[in-house]
Amino acid sequence: MTRNPDEYSPTKGHTYLNEPSLNKGTAFTEAERDALGLRGLLPPHVFTMEEQVPRIMKAFQTKATDLEKFIYLTALHDRNETLFFRVVIDNLEMMMPIIYTPTVGKACQEYANIFRRPRGLFVSLKHRGQIRQVLSNCPHKNIRAIVVTDGERILGLGDLGANGMGIPVGKLALYTACAGVPPTQCLPVTLDVGTNNEALLEDPLYLGNNTRRIRGEEFDSFVDEFIQAARAEYPKAMIQFEDFGNTNAFRLLERYRDQICTFNDDIQGTASVAMAGIISALRITKSKLTDQTLVFQGAGEAGIGIAELITRTMVDNGLPEAEARRRCLFVDSKGLVQSKRTDLQEHKKYFAHDLDALPDLQSVVETYRPTAIIGVSGQPSTFTQPIVETMARLNERPIVFALSNPTSKAECTAEEAYRWSGGRAIFASGSPFDPVEMDGKRYVPGQGNNAYIFPGVALGVIACGSSRVTDEMFAAAAFELANQVTETDLESGLVYPPLGQVREVSAKIAAVVAQLAYDRGLATEPKPSNIEQAVRDYMYEPKYQDYA
Ligand code: NAD
User: Fold this and answer.
1) 276 and 249 inside one domain
2) CB of 376 sitting under 6 A from ligand 1
3) What is the pLDDT confidence band of residue 407, given thresholds at 50, 70 and 90?
4) Is 188 helix (H, G, I), strand (E, B) or coil?
5) Could you tell me if 385 and 246 lie in one domain?
6) Ligand 1 centre and the CA of 155: distance in Å?
7) Residue 77 and residue 222 share a domain
8) What is the largest distance, in Å, between two alpha-carbon atoms of the chain?
């Protein structure tokens, strides 16, 4: 028997129940239940949001694994967005590792198995020539922030193709949770340009196109159609590139950064958060940025991004550019990055100095006597005891940043850094480490989490309608973040403020970024008399609206 669609006759209330940005669940009031045709569709007891939260938290705590917690929160996000953000914002430190790294990585790996409802837009190879029409299918029309991935380099997990959708979804959840960018202004996008992951290509449950990645001109023109379509459909949207493979990431940033309002968090956001950590560390060492020599283990998006921002800031502080670049030395899997090498990718060449070959980090540290070592190679345990001991011999307070994620990939642990340096290392990591007790002293390692930077930068850019996102903004954001670190934080070795303060940090960063946009003539919104207040007024607070 065929069904007659006319037999389905939803009330207005069904729309409110099924749309997560409108739904209040059991919190619809008696008056709303009358007005929207919800009578009988909900259990009779009317709850306030404050009364709904404990039920959510209780169910959350019963989930046995982080992945189950992720699935539970995703279901809440898809059902009642306001309640989801209330719960996340009120429990930010507990929720961030679930809705974003590290759990989101596992969720992307399991995406086909945990898939319930789609979220975000999949722009597929099949949509070539029609991408604008696809983008117009998003029901929200005032889009201000798009996070886009092609799934090629998901966290440290490699090519996950269309299963990488968890990343733009999670990242935008942090835009809202950490900086109050309104969720209805956020659009997660995955460009399904194929995958070269053999396991996915053979997986009958894979949700993306079972084809190999397109490359070269074909890839570029597909991305370009997306960019032009996004600009036409959502002219006020900022576009953030996320988790593209590193060759494409650098190229796309170069191509679009001066044309549209865009940034790449893996490169520029990482740079800003790492530089903030260094600036804080210099308050402990009481030295100047221009006096530092930094050795990077790993010459990819993170390392090159950090070095570019530091170089730029050293130049702003009076060092000639060539000299500033020479203060940043890179070690990759083949040893010291230097100009005689013939195997260097384009992005490494700006830091390939005229130096003799050296085989590894140990020899580079011995030879060039850095003040800081920054681990961004994704290779665990590469800051060995002899290397940290050498750093401690060369420096009263050596800066040791083991930024590779997840925790299992860190170049050394917090405990190793403190123990091998006799408690003198200024340590920060990409993934969180617990405080360390040693010889009666408590050391608190900082986490260089990008979430300190990108939400605030995005909020500032969006609130003032900046037409560009500039490196100057990321430098300013780094200084502002470092400003938020107190003397008490520094005394325990902490080079970042506590993560629980991130919304306050984001508001401050957003104000600085918006101020710069006005100063540089990039802002398109009328200038408010009090920029920080205007930014704070823009911030979304998860509260139910009254529909009656
Ligand atoms: P990427 O793939 O672009 O770069 C990795 C680099 O490491 C490449 O240059 C590669 O040549 C080099 N490498 C590989 N093996 C090596 C070895 N044995 N010795 C030295 N170098 C080696 O990746 P990315 O985006 O630059 O990220 C690198 C790491 O940094 C990841 O683990 C990522 O999680 C971490 N990261 C941390 C933060 C943060 O703490 N806020 C932010 C971004 C990235």
Assistant:
1) no
2) yes
3) confident
4) strand
5) no
6) 10
7) no
8) 82
DSSP 32: H
Is the same domain home to 389 and 465?
A: no
Same domain, 298 and 359: yes
Half-sphere exposure (Cβ direction) of 235: Cα atoms closer than 13 Å:
2
> pTM (2 decimals)?
0.96
Ligand 1 within 6 A of CB of 192: no
Predicted confidence band of residue 129 (pLDDT cuts 50, 70, 90): very high
Residue 1 has pLDDT above 80, yes or no: no
Sign of torsion over alpha carbons 522, 528, 532, 538 = negative
Nearest atom in ligand 1 to 431's CA: 40
From the CB of 248, is ligand 1 less than 6 Å away?
no
* Structure confidence by residue, pLDDT tens digits, 440-475: 999 999 999 999 999 999 999 999 999 999 999 999
Cβ of residue 267 lying under 6 Å from some atom of ligand 1: no
Q: Is the CB of 411 under 6 A from ligand 1?
A: no
Say which of 171, 348, 409, 508 is annotated catalytic: 171
**Confidence label for 102 from pLDDT (cuts 50, 70 and 90):** confident
Q: State the distance from the centre of ligand 1 to the C-alpha of 296, rounded, in angstroms.
A: 10
pLDDT band at 176 (very low <50, low <70, confident <90, very high): very high
Confidence at residue 214, expressed as pLDDT on a 0 to 100 scale:
97
Distance between the two ends of the chain, CA-based, in angstroms? Answer: 40
138 and 214 assigned to the same domain: yes
* pLDDT tens-digit series, residues 262-302: 999 999 999 999 999 999 999 999 999 999 999 999 999 99
Is 171 catalytic? The answer is yes
* Active-site residue, from 16, 24, 69, 100: 100
| Residue 154's pLDDT band (cuts 50, 70, 90) | very high
Distance 405 CA to ligand 1 centre (A): 9
Residues 6+ apart with CB under 8 A from 528: 534
**21 lies in which domain range?**
11-97
**Count of CB atoms within 10 A of residue 325's CB?**
20
**Which among 448, 471, 505 is the end of a domain?**
448
**Which residues touch 8 (CB under 8 Å, ≥6 apart)?**
none
Both 292 and 439 in one domain: the answer is yes
Torsion angle, alpha carbons of 247, 337, 284, 470, to 10: -30
Query: In the annotation, is 100 catalytic?
Result: yes
Is any atom of ligand 1 closer than 6 Å to the C-beta of 301? Answer: yes
On whether residue 544 sits in a domain, the answer given is no
Residue 332 Cβ inside 6 Å of ligand 1? The answer reads yes
The predicted structure's pLDDT at residue 34: 96
DSSP state string for 295-346:
EEE--SHHHHHHHHHHHHHHHHTT--HHHHHHTEEEEETTEE-BTT-S---G
Mean pLDDT of 489-510: 95
Per the structure, the count of domains in the chain is 4
Q: Using the atom order of ligand 1, give the atom closest to the CA of residue 429.
A: 40
User: How much is the mean pLDDT over the chain?
Assistant: 96
Mean pLDDT confidence for 128-148? 97
- Residue 348 sits in the same domain as residue 233: no
Answer whether residue 545 is part of any domain. no
Confidence of residue 344 (pLDDT cuts 50, 70, 90): very high
